[in-house]
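# nightly structure sweep
# worker-07 picked up a monomer target from the shared queue
# config: single-sequence mode, recycle default, output format = structure tokens
# input follows
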Amino acid sequence: MKVASQRIRLGVLLAYIGFLFFASRIALGAWVPPTTDKGLWFYSALAALLLGDLILSPFFTKPADAISYAVTGIIALLATNIWRAPSAAAFDRVVWLLTVLYAVTVSLAGFLSIVLKDSGNPSIERLARSLYALCDNFGGPRSIFSVIFLFAIIAFHRNSPREFITLGVVWALVIGLRPLETAVDLLSQWSVIWGSDLQAEGVGEVVAHQSPGIVLIRQTGERAQLFGNLLALPAGDGELTIGLAADYVGWAEGRWLRVLILDVPQEARRCLSKLFSKFGESQRALALASAHEDEPSIAACIQDHPVIHRRASLLGIVAPDTDIARLRFEVLRTDIDIEEGQLVEVRLGKRMVLYQIVNGLTKEEILQQKNMYGFVRGEAKKIGCWEPGLGRFEIVKWIPQPNEPVFVVKSEQYQPNREAVGHFPETNFNVAIDTNPLVTHNAAILGVLGSGKSFLALEIVERLIAEGIKIVALDLTNQYAVELKPYYDLAKEQPKLEKLAKIGAAGKEKVSKNVEEGGSAAAFANAIKEDLAEFLAAGAEFLKIYNPAAFEVWRQDRKPFQDRASMASLTPTEITRIITESLLELLQDKMSDTARACIVFEEAHSLIPEWNAVASEGDKTATNGTAKAILQGRKYGLGCLVITQRTANVTKSILNQCNTVFALRVFDATGMEFLKNYIGEDYAWVLSSLEDRHAVVFGRGSLCRSPVLLRLNNRDEFIGTFRAPRQEPRGG
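# output follows
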């Protein structure tokens, strides 16, 4: 019997015992065999044989079991009267001696196997294993008691043809043919074939194990295996397990199918062995159609296994050269649309860790006999493990196992979130910003015209206002007053702006013998400072907007001649310096680790230009002054937000201080080279192909610990979720 439950083996034993009583009735004329030599065949042979073979040692024989069987047989042989029986011939005594010698040899082999098994000598250890094999093959109940049985019928029954023939037939049936075990096996196979949904179809032979978790099968069946088909096949330890058909990797001596080995509970593996061993396919791969309800361990395994449950989203397997920061994976599917920015996840320890696709390339490998195998390899950057309670990703500092399944994250309809500045494409994984470090450590929004940077800047400004942070926006576009109307009282601000404009324009005719006192620059700076002081003191005002290009402010260039002097108007860059330095001076009343005010440089390339992009020498000095003020401002809770479409034309003295970067579509080489320092080459190279409203985000202001590619909020969706109901700004 190949495999059977203990209950079935017990039933078979009882049936055989009944058959032995019947055989005794035919051979000896009595239902119960006598306790003399005539009953040795029953009491010391068949009964012990059946009990040991069916109940005690149904699978293999340990040396200790072999010793017990051999000693029992020796005792039974010694109890016979073969030496004192006058009718016993020399032949009988020779057979008895050979039988005893057999039992003694087995018992000694078992004893030596136990004694020598822990020897440190390789030769002795091999001898112990050899003796163990001898006990397993010749020390089982079938071998020991068959020898004793044959001795019994030769020595005590050969003179009676009826007894000799009857008992010989009994031995041939019970020991040789074993009809009941054969019937049980046949019925089990019929039950599997006709009474179960579990079907087995030969697929091919296992030719290689690519540890861990991959098996190569040389397909012999004609039916092609589709991706995701389940197979029963031997794992590395030789026991059957469940595998998932992946792909065909080429042709070499037949078709090669690659199969992912699944982590299956031991109970399910035992059940697989029980079922499929009946097909004689223990060394082959078998197609596993489904599991019958009578096999709950397999059914539960197929229903609950995480890989089987998610096989529709299984994309590939972890490839070589994966490191802590980057996942490289081999793509197994061609029926799943993937793109840069999409999320994939892979098991790392006990957690599922998310990665974002940043690249893909084609590869080739050589199989046997010069067959080429082409495939696609994807590259993804680690995002981390999503922590719902914290609303952010936590980095997992290790790598996944080789050949671990990689799943594409299921696409979801995005649900706008009030706290999120954007989300991972095609998912509901949101990314929020931390407003305090975003301001205190400065931030930059970089991108070409039309990529969405202005709408992102407006959104960030609204979020800062909601946190009670004062905003001073230097806006050359005149867009902020319109888009941020709920936070800005233009009717109230207009007289103040007109007053500033009047003070600036009046300086054109103001000539002084002291050049520094000529023009309106000093008066304008004082007026700006007064206006900002009033703004900072107002508890209900959080947005101040200036357009540096709208002010006409004059300075005296040189000493006067005949009450006349050369006058020059201040550039937007110089006015920007006045506003920035005035704001810093007002905030120097106390030091602060939290954000108090943020100055927004809209069209920053015109307000804080790089030294090689200035319109005049005065702009170089002005830019340096602004940069110095921003550098000092962190100690007092002052930071900046830089928005530009020309990264190369903005002073790096300020850009290098921007710890948080929102990189939208960028084309210029200078911008890409600059951004590599922040987001790395993996993300920098995708900037030129980013779609509108997409950005790579990185820095202290992001709640993600690494660069991520996001789909930014639509302006209308943001307004609908953020302003309704509108929360009053915190702080004062």
